[in-house]
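User: Just a sanity check before I run the rest of the batch. Below are the structure tokens for the first item. I only need the designed sequence back.
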């Protein structure tokens, strides 16, 4: 989804909320958009860091390494982080960063140098009370470790809370490893209980079999759900009897793709349009558009990717009666776990895993309940309901600051 799509969505929601021009401008404008060129091994790479809004606290959002990274994409993702952080009641604004690169074409040493170069260019606008990065697409705890190390070398002091999703040895927390999937799993179970849907009634398809897609598949499989199709960037696999997720994972690790697993091969397009009851989107943005939304048959859709459904497609799916658990709610587990890591780093107190897991589950359930009940009361879909709740909190903070 482009920022132009976000603009349309904000304008539509602002009319529902009767917002004034100044309020709409606050939502659509950015505090800062920084753009740099990084040079590694004689090659140049575009890099970005956007801070959308910081009325609620310092910026918070990941850094992705991907060939499609652009200023428009980073802006869109930073905006979503503002909404997501507000919705979850966190003391963060929204930010995002990225480097336009295909990390699969780089050596480990080049990835490390690129990570450090990013910090050298952007360190002045980052920090535990300014803007706090985290992992995103094709970045991981190891890369966060390189970035923390470079930041602390430049500053000359330790500041582990300046970045989250780090290795545990550098102040990371175990919960962060699968938190996006775990949060989505908790919310999905709460939703299915409310609509009285038993797991035995559901056939599930999952687009995306990276870290987030595999972990949600693993949790569902271990809980007794039937997953009949999964896919990665090279295609998908289908078995109406249900897939053994651990065997699929093993094949992917050994051969590079799920398509080499036994069974019927399908394309990503076919997976999106297949007759499943629940479709989980755990890949990239813009997977369901106005061109294929009419062919999507799933009754329920869980968005674990950011912006996998365009605004036009959203309207088509809602008219068809599909229930969408939106990204800003469904995939917020990552930033909730990052918040716990940030707090632990700032206060110097080491929390027990069990304590964090209980707090995490409570936070996810409370957020879902608030969105679901508000949406039902106001007769809105959950995406619009979640946006209204989040926007109200951001604007309340702006009013308290005297901005409005």
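Assistant: Here's the designed sequence for the first item:
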């Amino acid at each position: 989804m482009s920022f132009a799509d976000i603009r349309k969505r904000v304008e539509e929601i602002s009319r529902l909320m009767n917002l004034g021009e100044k309020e709409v401008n606050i939502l659509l404008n950015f505090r800062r958009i920084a753009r740099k060129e990084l040079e590694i091994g004689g090659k140049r790479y575009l890099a970005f860091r956007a801070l959308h809004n910081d009325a609620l606290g310092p910026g918070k959002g990941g850094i992705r390494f991907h060939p499609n990274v652009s200023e428009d994409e980073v802006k869109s993702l930073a905006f979503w982080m503002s909404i997501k952080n507000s919705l979850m009641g966190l003391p963060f604004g929204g930010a995002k960063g990225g480097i336009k690169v295909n990390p699969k074409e780089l050596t480990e040493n080049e990835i490390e140098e690129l990570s450090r170069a990013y910090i050298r260019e952007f360190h002045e606008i980052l920090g535990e009370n300014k803007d706090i990065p985290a992992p995103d697409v094709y970045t991981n705890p190891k890369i966060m470790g390189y970035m923390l190390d470079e930041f602390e070398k430049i500053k000359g002091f330790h500041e582990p809370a300046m970045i989250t999703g780090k290795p545990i040895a550098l102040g990371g927390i175990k919960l962060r490893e699968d938190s996006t999937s775990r949060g989505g799993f908790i919310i999905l179970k709460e939703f299915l209980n409310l609509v009285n849907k038993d797991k035995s009634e559901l056939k599930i398809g999952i687009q995306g079999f990276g870290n987030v897609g595999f972990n949600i598949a693993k949790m569902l499989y271990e809980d007794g759900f039937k997953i009949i199709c999964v896919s990665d960037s090279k295609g998908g696999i289908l078995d109406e009897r249900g897939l053994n997720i651990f065997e699929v994972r093993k094949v992917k690790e050994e051969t590079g793709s799920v398509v080499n697993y036994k069974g019927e091969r399908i394309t990503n397009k076919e997976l999106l349009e297949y007759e499943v009851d629940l479709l989980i989107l755990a890949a990239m943005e813009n997977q369901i558009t106005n061109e294929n939304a009419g062919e999507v048959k799933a009754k329920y859709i869980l968005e674990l990717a950011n912006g996998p459904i365009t605004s036009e497609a959203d309207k088509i799916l809602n008219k068809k009666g599909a229930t969408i658990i939106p990204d800003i709610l469904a995939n917020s587990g990552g930033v909730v776990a990052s918040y716990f890591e940030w707090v632990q780093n700032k206060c110097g107190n080491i929390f027990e895993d069990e304590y964090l897991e209980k707090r995490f589950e409570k936070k996810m359930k409370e957020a879902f309940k608030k969105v679901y009940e508000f949406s039902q009361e106001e007769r809105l879909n959950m995406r619009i309901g979640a946006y209204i709740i989040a926007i109200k909190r951001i604007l309340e903070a702006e009013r308290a600051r005297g901005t409005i």
